[in-house]
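Predict the holo structure. Ligand: magnesium ion.
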Amino acid sequence: MSTADSRAAIDFIRVIINDDLRSNRFGGRVHTRFPPEPNGYLHIGHAKSLCLNFGIAADYGGKCNLRFDDTDPTKEEAEYVESMIRDIRWLGFDWGDRLFYASDYFEQLYQWAITLIKKGRAYVCDLSSDQVREYRGTLTEPGKNSPYRDRSVEESLDLFARMRAGEFPDGSRTLRAKIDMASPNLNMRDPVMYRILRAEHYRQGSAWCVYPMYDWTHGQSDSIEGITHSICTLEFENHRPLYDWFLDELGIYHPQQIEFARLNLTYTVMSKRRLLPLVQAGIVRGWDDPRLPTLQGLRRRGCTPEAIREFCRRIGVAKTDSVVDIGLLEHCLREDLNKRSPRVMAVLHPLRVVIDNYPEGKVEELDAVNNPEDPAAGSRKVPFSRVLYIEQEDFMEEPPRKFFRLSPGREVRLRWAYFLKCVSVVKDPGTGALTELHCTYDPATRGGDSPDGRKVKATLHWVSAAHALDAEVRLYDHLFTKENPSDVEEGQDWMANVNPRSLEVLAGCKVEPSLAGAAPESRYQFERLGYFCVDPDSASGKLVFNRTATLRDTWAKVQKAEQQEG
Ligand code: ATP
Ligand code: MG
């Protein structure tokens, strides 16, 4: 492989890292971090960042820290820290003993702020937040200097100490970097470094009443931890000059910030700002609702960590924003579940079948293969008896031309069992609705083949009525009706695109008895129906399943069509 080829095979961030390794820029070290703010739950976008940061550390024999970026006491909670830790472990990443909190650096950051004041690079400003905004100017107009910009170093030092000591009301003063009010980059127009805020911090309690801003915290935290490559999403690109300015002015160890495109997915929203109203308005049942792209939602839905990591590998890393088809995530999930899920039989819309020539009271235990993709998974016994349930949609009294499943006079195969022929139907005399089928079976076809070579065109799944367990099954569809939830008519907001049919709850489903006691999060393929997993709402005697995915792979079809065209 030529150098150009091997470069094409890796993403642009790894290209930068390779260059840095060649030039020995960081002494051969590769050290990344994942820096979530504990103000909500992690979602699949965070998974992209996790895979990137921990993946790079693994590829280069480097390290990746977990750091909570906790500088806003009004939004952050210990509960979020715990849930994030749980989710990251579940995804399969390990930060060793390198769990850090930006709030642990508050004292160091405060001392560094004093350093900048002493250098004449920061000052206490008495403008209100509205005035600060007013003075900042716009993209087309330069800002104006604050009247406090040239106050003496001594006065700023004194005021900053008194800010910390709690002498001034919230919002009455700030500490600002003294950079350039005419800079074309608004982030460089004397950005605020500290604000006065009396709020309990979930880790620091009331130790502080001045809190550092994100930009003042992030780069210095990276520096303290010896991060080499500080990878963040594109919206921070025009914060990079400020990131660099702070580190250069302090003259401390200087990591490289690199920006990449955030993940967007069709038919869903990702940012915590949008997930929260869905939870609060009761449109979903909580942060772990299986329709949400949160890691807890995906987990409850039946998604595997392996599928999420494979999805992140396939989408790659780029420098321009794009939207990924949610079908690709489902495709990765099906591929993984196909390999690992035991097959079982379940009937979602039961139709009673009586086999007239099968002896009353007789029960046979038939062998069923657990996973044709995995011989090591072995087989199990499924009970067969005179009364069964099949799927309502597998029967039609007057079948159209291409319907090959059961109908009067027609013979089909029952999976792992016998050939079955429909002889008559029973209807409710009042409503005319179909209530029961009468059938016969051919005892010579046990196991599913006829010794006389007779063929059938369909194989149906079934359960034995006397042995089946009742279950509730929850079917999920996209949370939004439009690929892009923000695509709305004038005057509407994105909530207007919520799919009113994203959840369908089926009661009275029938599943095979081997599922008794199945633990929450156990995953199965229900033959012919899709992948399902046990919901934590299940209790003994009350099974609840979530449909993870159907068997139809729309994404694979699209790919195939594109390949044929191209
Ligand atoms: P949100 O808007 O969902 O709150 P955020 O960027 O505020 O996201 P943080 O907790 O600050 O969330 O993010 C932690 C890390 O995850 C950051 O490095 C951020 O860039 C990254 N990240 C967040 N959302 C995405 C996404 N959609 N795609 C890729 N990376 C993301
Ligand atoms: Mg954030």
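The chain is about 30% helix and 25% strand. Residues 44-59 form the longest helix (16 residues).
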